[in-house]
Design goal:
The protein is an alpha+beta fold. Helices cover 16% and strands 15% of the residues.
Length: 346
């Protein structure tokens, strides 16, 4: 099932690279560690979301075109596209640059090199990916990349409702894991913790503007009617007019000053992000809003769900993981050294 653009309602820390077993692994992530286990859920949204009883990591940015190309060439060297991991709209959505992805497919290329990144778009989030695609990407990571399989590992893709395998080290974040990483701040309410409305450490609407922006900016639509260079419509153009020839996506992490408490980028705007949670029937959750959505869709109060085969021009995903033992040692060592430095300064 393929949709064009999600128009919800209308159309419905220390960053550590994730190591996998294969020596030839090429896809790595910069992780944000989400601690403060046992935090309360967000009362502003009915105490339904955000409570997580464990420490975990979440990728600071969304999965990019460059990372997804590595995956495609590894698991589909012949270009057979057996599991529909590649969508032709990644290469060309006729008449609409705005809806076209950043990956080309060339049948005549050598095996293992049929998929290539479009010039200048390697660091943009991959789009036209379904939840099923994201789950298979996760399995591949878990199985060591390279020739690692896509049908099992973390998610058993033969099942109607694949669920996270016990002991999985890398996975798609649950809705609670995604929500906490985006909106929670343990220093709020005199240190008892709390939630912001937006994933930019703010209860004030992010500014819609081109990157790099400021400390509270995002790639989404906001028009305040004031001709001052910000909040003029689409973030990338500053215009309320839709231009089919415009690429509205921004590089992941381009809003360098706008992060969540834990250091994630773009959990508001750019693309909607799949999460692991089953919402209704086989439908999976999405959150965060995108370049083509207004302010309300960025808020913590807004959630979507779509069938797992749905692919759109403004949806992607990010990864989560369990800190590996070695990473925990590094984190503890870094914390210890920081504490020693503070004591010496004191």
């Amino acid at each position: 099932m393929r949709h064009l653009v999600i128009m919800a309602g209308a159309l419905a820390s220390a960053g550590l690279l994730f190591g996998v077993s294969s020596a030839s692994a090429t896809v790595t992530f910069n992780w944000a560690t989400v601690g403060n286990p046992g935090n309360a859920a967000d009362t502003a949204t009915g105490s339904l979301y955000g409570s997580v009883d464990h420490t975990y990591q979440i990728s600071k940015t969304e999965v990019t075109n460059a990372q997804y190309v590595e995956f495609l060439n590894a698991v589909d060297p012949s270009g057979a596209n057996t599991h529909s991991l590649y969508n032709g709209y990644m290469s060309d959505y006729p008449g609409y640059v705005a809806y076209t992805g950043g990956i080309n497919y060339t049948a005549g290329n050598a095996a293992g090199a049929k998929y290539t990144v479009k010039a200048g778009e390697g660091n943009q989030p991959v789009i036209w990916v379904s939840w099923n695609d994201a789950a298979r990407f996760t399995n591949w990571l878990s199985n060591g990349q390279g020739s690692g399989g896509t049908e099992s590992g973390v998610y058993d893709m033969t099942q109607s409702f694949p669920s996270r395998a016990a002991g999985a080290q890398v996975f798609l974040p649950t809705e609670d894991e995604w929500y906490k990483a985006a909106y929670y701040d343990p220093t709020l309410n005199s240190g008892s913790g709390g939630y912001y409305t937006y994933a930019t450490l703010s209860n004030t609407a992010p500014i819609s503007q081109a990157p790099a922006g400021g400390s509270n900016s995002a790639n989404y639509i906001n028009n305040d009617g004031v001709a001052n260079g910000i909040n003029g419509g689409y973030a990338v153009t500053g215009s309320t007019s839709f231009n089919s020839s415009q690429d509205y996506l921004t590089d992941v992490g381009a809003y360098t000053g706008s992060t969540s408490y834990y250091g994630t980028f773009d959990q508001n705007g750019n693309v909607w992000e799949w999460n692991e949670t089953l919402i209704s029937g086989s439908s999976r959750g999405m959150r965060g809003g995108s370049w083509s959505n207004g302010l309300g869709y960025l808020a913590a109060s807004y959630r979507l769900d779509y069938a797992p085969a749905t692919e759109t021009a403004n949806s992607g995903f990010r990864m989560a993981s369990v800190p590996e033992p070695g990473s925990c040692v590094v984190l503890l060592s870094m914390a210890g050294m920081a504490l020693m430095r503070r004591r010496r300064i004191a």
